[in-house]
Structure formats: C-alpha cells, structure tokens
C-alpha cells in the first residue's frame, strides 16, 4: 500500500465515511472525532499542568505501594521495561482470600 492510499482511507473514515454522492450515503462505518474550539482550548490549557498532574498520580501510587504492599494478599504491577506510566489508574492485585480481613 502507498501512503496516499492510507491517507485517502483515513480521510474517508474521518468524514464519517460519507461516499461521494449527491445525498448522504455511507458504505462504511466512519467517525467524527473532530473537536470544537472550546474543547481544544480547554485541552491546550490542561496540557500546561500535565506534568504536575502526572507527578501527583505517581506520588499517590507510591504512597499506596509503601503502605499496602507489605499486607498479605496485596501486590502491585510494575512498569513495563523501558516505559514510564502516568499512573492514571493505580492497579493493585488483591488475593481476596488472604486480604479479606485486612480490607
């Protein structure tokens, strides 16, 4: 496949897969993920504080790990090799048979 073919397909899908027809005809399932100006402005503003939000999430995860990891039945998932998790979701593995009393 050439890059033009991929670009044409992406363009088709991003326009709700509307076919070139004088009426609204859709032969494939397409999407409309474009955002309005207000949503884009909010997203840009939030990017300015992204680093501090990620740092806080990582601190929260570390707090959970330090205070819960020693309890029977509690364990944590490590970051994959050569990765940096934003820790937006703190995953804790709990063996309920061992941890029910602690919960």
Q: Could you describe the 3D structure shown?
A:
With 103 residues, the chain is mainly alpha-helical. It has helices at 3-14, 37-47, 50-68, 96-99; strands at 74-76, 92-94. The chain has a two-stranded antiparallel ribbon with strand order 1-2. The longest helix has 19 residues, at 50-68. The model has no long low-confidence stretch (mean pLDDT 85).
What Rg do the Cα atoms give? 23 Å
Query: What oligomeric assembly is this protein in?
Result: single chain
Distance between the termini: 55 Å
The shape is: elongated
* Major beta-sheet overview: 2 strands, antiparallel
Percent helix: 40-55%
Low-confidence stretches: none
Give me the strand/helix succession: HHHEEH
Mean pLDDT: 85
* Count of extended strands: 2
Q: Please, how many helices?
A: 4
Task: Order the strands across the largest sheet as they lie in space.
Answer: 1-2
Class of secondary structure makeup: mainly alpha
Strand content: 5-15%
Short description:
This protein has 103 residues and is mainly alpha-helical. 45% of the residues lie in helices and 6% in strands.
Keyword list:
single chain, mainly alpha, 4 helices
